[in-house]
Structures are given as structure tokens and as C-alpha cells.
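[09:14] KT: can someone run the structure on this one? pasting the chain below
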Amino acid sequence: MNIYDKKQRWKLLLAAFAMIIVAASLWYTGILVKRIADEEKQKVRLWAEAIQKKSKLVAYTNRLFKTIGEEERKRIELWAEANKRIIYADNNSDLTFYLDIISSNTTIPVIVVNQDGKITNWRNIDLPTENDTAFLYKRLEEMKAKNPPIEIEVYGNLKNYLYYDDSRIFSELKIVLNDLIESFISEIVVNSASVPVIVTDSTQQNITYTGNIDSTVLGDSVMVKKILSEMKSQNPPFKIYIDNHKSYVFYKDSDLLQQLKWYPFVQFFVIGLFLIISYYVFSTSRKAEQNQVWVGMAKETAHQLGTPLSSLMAWIEILKAQNVDELTVHELEKDIKRLEMITERFSKIGAVPVLENENILSIINESVHYLRGRISKNVSIDIIAEQDDLTAKVNPSLFSWVLENLIKNAVDAMSGKGRITISIKDLGQYVYIDISDTGSGIPKNKQKTVFEPGFTTKKRGWGLGLSLVKRIIEGYHKGKVFVKESSEKGTTFRIVLNK
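[09:31] RB: done, C-alpha cells below
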């Protein structure tokens, strides 16, 4: 199997393995995302239930406090009535019952004022200092703000006013119950809803509760609508009932869940980028090593050819001195010149060649003339040029090497029988040279690998000819060479040169 076929197969296997890893990672991440999303939804439901329970507890405590407040007012009214009865009682009346009523009030703070607003009596108020009237009047103002006064008639049209506050027991009960409610709700909310949550009324417009939402955002109606729309797009809202009124709970995924959704793609991007950079670095290093090998082999070849060439040139002189047939000597000289050109070509590998404006048609004619006598007679070579003086920047020695390789490949593709057409076109800044044959063609999946070192379809080929072509045209001449078209009827290689 060709080395590039094996390489392609390994690439496909590695790509398939990478796709399996990607699919498995996405599948597992999807499972994790679904689990976390379900847990978050459950926590939001628990949070919503806590809101419902809070609403019920608040309603219950309000009813309880109202009932206790009404009972305490009744007690104060009874206490005021007992005071009134004592005032209007005659000397023979039994006041024990009324005195018991008055003395039984040991918890409800009471202040009595006359019509002029002057404090005449108080009970169950702890003064910071004895007879601290400023403190008493301050407490009086607090009582006025909390509860309406109870009138007490005294001596004709004179009236006193009784003000009172919640009893110590009632106040302590309020504090304890409120603290229990708040601590219960706070613990549930903190432990349950780690995601942004909004509760609206039945219209889904007015916000009643929020959780993990920036308070500054809530003042902006546009931002609120945007957040609700974003939440609705991520998760459909669900219904709850608060104080027997329908409400809707909106929520969106937590930052952790959103990051987890994007994590595989970020991970694949980072790994992919690392692999691409690594591949580029290793590929560049490998190409640099290959170039060193190419240069070393080329220069060594040129060096090895130098010694026999010198010997052959000496033998030519000896043959001339011995009056050997001139035609034979002439042909030998031509081959020696050819070897000198080949040696020159190899010696230029790795060095920057000198590019000059040369007549392209002249170089092509010279190369074709040399090859005609050394290829099958059943192969015809036609040259089509728009003009005779078309020039481009080339190195004649290296460019003729390119032509020879392409023509020899074409001859091999036609099995020594067919037609080769070389057409030259002037397209302003560039010169296009198309070399077409009538061979069997190149499969489409191999048209890009034919220029790779080692690629060959011949049993004894080295796969270096087209690689040299690409290196000379693109590396040294800064041009382009590629398979323009190929089919069962033949192949066309195109060379693009800068004028």
C-alpha cells in the first residue's frame, strides 16, 4: 500500500476516534447538565413552597396578633371601667372586685392623661430613673401611634384618656414568631434557590418576590421584561398559589450550569488549538529536516558526479586525438554537457537561484529537442505559443528540469504512446504553461498528493520527480504548479510564472 494511502487511512481513523471522544464527552456532559438542571428546578420549587408557607404563616400570625390585640384592648377597657367605678363609688360600696381587676394588669403598659394632655397615672412602665417624665411622654407618643385611646369620664364633663401598648408577653411573642418565620424562610431560600428567581402575579407582569436578583435592576422596567423573557426562554414558568391568588415562578439556569453547558466546546477549542499549533510546529520542524536531507543529498550527488565528469572530459580529448568518429564524439559531448547541467542543478538545491528574464519558448524548445531523441517514437510533442518573445523570471537550468520531469511523467502515463501538448499563454502579470497528455489520468483523491515526496504509481519509482517540480516552481520561482484537470482521457498540469 502507498505510504500516502496509509497516511490517509490513519488520518481517517484518528478523526473517527476523535469524533467518538467528542460525542462521548458531549453525551456525558449532557447527562450532567440535565441532572443539575433537574436539581435546580427542584430547588426552585422548594423555594416557591417556602414563599407559600411564609405567606400562610404571616397571614396566620397576623390573625393571631389581631385576636390577641383585641383581647388586650378588652382587658384595658375593663381596667378603665374598673377605675371609673372606683371613682364614682360611694363609701359603702364593696370595691374589692374592681381593685382585683386593676391589680391584675401586670403586663400591659398603660398611661392615663387628662383633657390637657398631662399624665396623671401610669402602670407597667419601667422608668430609666425615678419620675423620668421625658421618658413617659416619649412612651405616650409611641402608644398614641399604635392604639386609639379609651375615654374615662370623671366628675361631670371632665374626661381622662387611657393609652396602652402591647403587653410584654404579646411583644415577646411577636418577636419570637417573626424571628422564627424569617429564619425558617431564610434558611430554605439560601439552601434551595441558588439561581435567579422571580415570582409574579397572575398577569406575569407585576413582581411580588425575587431571589438572587440585583435590586438595582428591579427598578428598570425594560430590564425586568428582558430578564423575564430570558427566563421564559430557558425554562417555562410554573404556577403557585399565594394567599389563594395564582402566581408564576420564573427562573433561569445558574452561572455554574451555563458554564457547564459551554465547557465541552471551550475544552475542544483549547485542545484543538493546542493540537493545531503542535501539528504546525512539528510539521515545520519535519519539513526543515526534510529540506536539510534534500540539500545534503543534492549536494552530495553533485559532488559525486564531479569526479567521473572530469574523467569523461579527459577521455573525450583522448578519443579526439585518436581520430574516433566525430558523430560519436559529438554525441558523447552532448551527454557530458547534459551531465554537467544535471550536476549544476543539484548543486543549486538549497541555494537561492538567480532568476532572470528568459525566453520561455526558447527554454521549452531546447528541453523538448533534447527529450525527443530519448523517448518513444510513438509519442508526439506539440508546442503552442501565442508569441515567440514571451519572457518570465526563471532560472533556465532549474526550469528545464521541471519541464523534463513533467514530460517524462506524461510519457509514462501514456505507456510510451500518445500526444503531449504544451501551450503557453500570456495573461498580463503571469505566464501560464499547460502540459497536457492523453494518458489514463489521475484519480481525484490523489491529485493533491501527487506532489508529495515518495508518492508514486510506478513499481520502481522513487516518487521524487513531481516533488522536485513543486519545490522548484513554488519554492524558488514563487509560482504555482497544480493539476488543472484530469480524466480518463488525460491530464493537464498548469505552471504559473511571474513575468
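[09:33] KT: thanks! The chain has a mean pLDDT of 80.
[09:34] RB: yep, looked fine to me
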